Amino acid sequence: MKIRYRRTGGIANIKTQVDFDSEALPSEKLATLEKLLRLKSMGKSSHPDDFIHELEILDDPKHQKVRFADSRLPHDALALFDFLTQKR
Amino acid sequence: MWLIMRCTFIPPQIFERIAVAGNQQQKRIAFRNLLASAELRGERRALLSLGSRLAVVPGVKRRTIYDAMNGMTLPGTLVRGEGDGPTRDICVNEAYDGTGKVYDFFSKVFERNSIDNKGMRLESSVHYRNKFSNAFWNGQQMIFGDGDGEIFTRFTKQIDIIGHELTHGVTEFESGLRYSGQSGALNESLSDVFGSIVKQYAKKQTAKKADWLIGAGLFTKKIHGVAIRSMKAPGTAYDDELIGKDEQPAHMDDYVKTADDNGGVHINSGIPNKAFYNLATALGGYSWETAGRIWYTALTEKLGASATFSKFANMTFEVAGTLYGARSKEQKAVNSAWSDVGISVE
C-alpha cells in the first residue's frame, strides 16, 4: 500500500508529511500500521494544541483516511510515527 | 440618578461581571448600580450573594513541577514545589518561574484566583517524551517538550508559550470554547492574546514597544523565521524551506477552510489576533489596561462553547460600551479594530 502520513496541530502547527510504501516497513511497524488503519478515527481531541496524525491510503480508490489525536495514541503508534518522520 | 437610569438599559449580569472583574473604579460604579437596582427591586438576597463574591479571597500560588524523564507517564517525578529553591535543570526553573509570572499577571491585573478562579494548583511536567516538539494543556496540567533541537528549542523558554497554555485552561473553565473551526480559532487567539500580554506585562512594555510575536526564539537558528506567529502581521512569522511558510490570514476575505488542525484553529486565529493588535496599538499605553480588560471581560462573560468571531466581536463592543461608555473612544476603537479584519459589529 502507498500511504501518506501527515501531522498537523501542536502549538506551532508545523505540518509534517511523509509518503511511504507499507512493504518497506519493518514487520512490527507494519503490524502497528495495519492495526491503526482498522481503527476508526480518533481525531477529535479535547486537548488544545494536541498534534493530529492522519494516515491516508493513496492507492485506495476511496482514499481512506484515519485521524488520531496524539494524546490518545498508544506507545507503539507514536513509535511508528516517530520512525516515519525520522526517515524523512 | 444617572446610575439608576443606566440599570434600566444594561443587564445586571454585565454589572455583576464588572463588579468582579473590573478595575477599582469600575467595580465601585458597577456595585453602586447593582445596589441601586436591587434596592429598587427589594432583592436583598441577591445583594448578599453578590457581596460574598466580591469579598476577595486572597489567592495562594501553588506551583508543582514534575519531570516526565522523557517518558509518557504523567505527571512524572516531583522535582520542585512552591517555595522550593531553583534546581540544576533549566526547564524545571523556567516552568516554575513562567507559571508564577502568569499566575501573578492574572491575579494582579484581573484579580483572578488561578486558572479556575478557585485557586487551582498549577502543575507542569517537563521533559515529556523524547525530543517532543510541543507544549499543551491537557485539562489538568501543562506539558512541555524539549524540542527536537533541529526545528525547535525547549518549550519552557518563552513566557508567552506558558501564558498561551495556561490561558487555554482559563478559557476551558470560563467558556469551554469548542476546539474546532471558528470557535477553536477564537480559543487559540485568546491564548495568543493573553500569552502576548503576559510577556508585555513581564517586560513592562507598551503596546507600541511590544514585538507582538508568539514564541520568538522557539525556532533554532537553522530555521528562517522569527516566531511561530505574528499578531501584528499574521502570515509573516516564518518562511523556511523545511517547515514551509506561515499561512495565517489577517482578514476574513482570506479565511482558510480546511480539515487540518481541527479546522484550522492555529491558522484562522490570525484574524482575531490582528483585531486585538489593532485595538491595543490604537489605544496606546499598556495593552492589559484597556484592550486586555475588554477582551478578558468578554471571555469571562457567557461566551458560549460555539461562539464565532462575530459573536465575540459584538461582545467586546458591548463590553467596551459598558466599561467606557457608549460611543467612547474605546468603543469606537473596538469597532475599527474588527472592521479592519473584515468583521462588522452592531
* Helical percentage of chain A: 25-40%
Biggest beta sheet summary of chain B: 5 strands, mixed
Mean pLDDT of chain B: 89
Strand order, largest beta sheet of chain A: 2-1-3-4
What are the secondary-structure elements of chain B, in order, as H or E? Answer: HHHHEEHEEEHHEEEEHHHHH
Task: Give the distance, in angstroms, between the N- and C-terminal Cα atoms of chain B.
Answer: 28 Å
| Low-confidence segments of chain A | none
Strand content of chain A: 25-35%
Summarize the helix and strand pattern of chain A as letters: EEHEEH
Number of strands of chain A: 4
Spatially, the strands of the biggest sheet of chain B line up as 2-1-3-5-4
Content-based structural category of chain B: alpha/beta
**Annotation, overall tally of beta strands of chain B:** 9
Helix count, DSSP H or I runs of 4 or more residues of chain B: 12
Verbal overview:
The complex is a heterodimer of chains A (88) and B (346). Chain A contains two helices and four strands, in the order ββαββα. In chain A, helix 1 packs across helix 2. With 88 residues, chain A is an alpha+beta fold. In chain A, 27% of the residues lie in helices and 30% in strands. Chain B is an alpha/beta fold and 346 residues long. Helix content of chain B is 47%, strand content 8%. Chain B contains twelve helices and nine strands. In chain B, the strands form three sheets. Chain B has a five-stranded mixed sheet, covered by helices on one side. A two-stranded antiparallel ribbon of chain B has the order 6-7. The longest helix of chain B is centred in the middle third of the chain and has 23 residues. Chain B is globular and about 55 Å long. Chain B starts with a helix and ends in a 7-residue tail after the last helix. Classes of the chains: A alpha+beta (88), B alpha/beta (346). The interface between A and B is medium-sized, with 23 and 34 residues.
